[in-house]
Specification:
By secondary structure, the chain is of the alpha/beta class. It folds into 2 domains: 3-203, Rossmann fold, CATH 3.40.50; 206-360, N-(1-d-carboxylethyl)-l-norvaline Dehydrogenase, domain 2, CATH 1.10.1040.10. The protein has helices at 3-6, 23-34, 46-55, 77-81, 96-103, 122-133, 178-188, 198-203, 206-217, 219-223, 237-256, 264-272, 279-285, 301-304, 307-321, 326-339, 343-346, 350-353, 357-364, 373-377; strands spanning 15-19, 38-42, 57-62, 66-69, 72-74, 84-89, 112-115, 140-144, 149-153, 158-164, 168-173, 192-194. The longest helix is centred in the middle third of the chain and has 20 residues, at 237-256. It is globular. Residues 1-6 and 373-378 have low confidence and may be disordered.
């Protein structure tokens, strides 16, 4: 079937469901409602959205301003996704598995699920769970490489969108599914660009490079409740050396499997249009980082999300391919000890995800350049 025949169409009669009522969920809800679509916002914790359940109005400031009406604010998973062509999951990646298990029984043929972001192997993990729990349904499952927005929720019904990123890669799994969703996503999010290799979104997980090391090495200040600017003050000349080494270990995996090496500095230029010659310069030049504060607790998503769904997959690949990862393994171990969790046991290892042998075999061969839709459909 040709690309045009397979392409999905989206109009304003369709609902778009956003699962997650945190910073990113609020930003997506305001953005999509602003375009005139019926937005269903699905939450997990009522106290966070109590005002929204009453008014169904969300306020946005920053990249765009306005008050936008939502179609539904609910914790009823079945009701939220029933009429949706597109389901955007916008929660920390350590919550993906729980949500996929919850919605899997209610999914219908043709629906698309996009993890924002997937972190590492998010789409493959979700695809495998759906196939195990609802094997007869035919849905499309994808991931973005990073969150589209730099944003912060402000109060019960408002979000400040500091930046809509210039470019965000996405990929569906299997990769040929990109053909089906490409037009729909471009219509909604012109900043999102398809790539045709799931390793490009999963192994370019920059959150795993930056967040865990910075949070672990500032754990004392965070634990004392000492507020500081996470990127501007928390990343010192000493700490940035560790971040650089973690990025180098990630890039070593990419180089080993024949993929083009995409460094943190490459990502900064693509995502924020910032040119920098050093990591420290980049953190100081990214304007939207200037006001982001430190976490309130050591038990935060920079560790609970980015270690098990970012560093652990890299460590697992390093062990599989025989690539030394002393800095990544050190941060995993210290983070596990700080929180009393065994991230290596619960994280996204090759075995826990059920990473297909075809992906590992592909890695053992050489990198296949990005394929155009016509090539994938032939």
């Amino acid at each position: 079937m040709s690309y045009n025949q397979e392409a999905m169409t989206l109009n304003r009669r369709h609902d778009i469901t956003i699962i997650g009522a945190g910073n990113g969920g609020y930003a997506f809800a305001a953005y999509v409602a602003r375009l005139g679509y019926n937005v269903n916002l699905c939450f997990r914790t009522l106290q966070h959205v109590l005002k929204l359940t009453e008014t169904k109005k969300i306020r946005a400031t920053g990249a765009f301003d306005g008050v936008f009406r939502l179609n539904m604010v609910t914790s009823n998973w079945e009701k939220a996704i029933k009429r949706s062509m597109l389901i955007l999951i916008v929660v920390p990646a350590d919550g993906h598995e729980e949500i996929i298990y919850r919605i899997a029984p209610f999914l219908k043929n043709g629906q698309s699920i996009l993890l924002n972001p997937g972190r590492t192997w998010g789409a493959i993990s979700a695809y495998n769970i759906i196939k195990q729990t609802n094997p007869s349904v035919n849905v499309h499952v994808g991931e973005t490489q990073t969150l589209l927005f730099t944003c912060r929720r402000e109060g019960a019904d408002s979000v400040k969108i500091l930046k809509i990123k210039d470019k965000v890669d996405y990929c569906f799994y299997p990769e040929a599914k990109n053909i089906t969703v490409k037009d729909m996503l471009e219509k909604l999010f012109p900043q999102m660009q398809p790539v045709y290799d799931i390793r490009l979104t999963s192994l370019n997980n920059i959150g795993a490079v930056v967040h865990p090391a910075t949070a672990v090495l500032n754990a004392g200040a965070i634990g004392r409740g000492h507020e500081f600017l996470f990127y501007r003050q928390g990343i010192t000349e000493e700490i940035v050396r560790i971040v650089e080494k973690i990025d180098a270990e990630r890039c070593a995996v990419m180089e080993h499997i024949g993929m083009p090496v995409y460094t943190f500095l490459d990502w900064v230029q693509d995502t924020y249009n910032v040119k920098a010659s050093t990591f420290l310069e980049a953190f100081q030049k990214i304007e939207s980082y200037a006001t982001i504060n430190s976490p309130e607790s050591v038990d935060n998503r920079y560790l609970t999300e980015d270690i098990p769904t970012g560093l652990v997959p890299l460590a697992s690949l390093g062990a599989y391919f025989g690539i030394p990862m002393p800095n990544i393994n050190s941060i995993i171990q210290i983070g596990s000890s700080l929180l009393g969790k065994d991230f290596l046991r619960i994280g996204r290892t090759i075995d826990n995800v059920g990473l297909p042998q075809a992906i590992l075999d592909r890695a053992l061969s050489s990198f296949t350049p990005r394929l155009e839709p016509e090539e994938l459909s032939s």
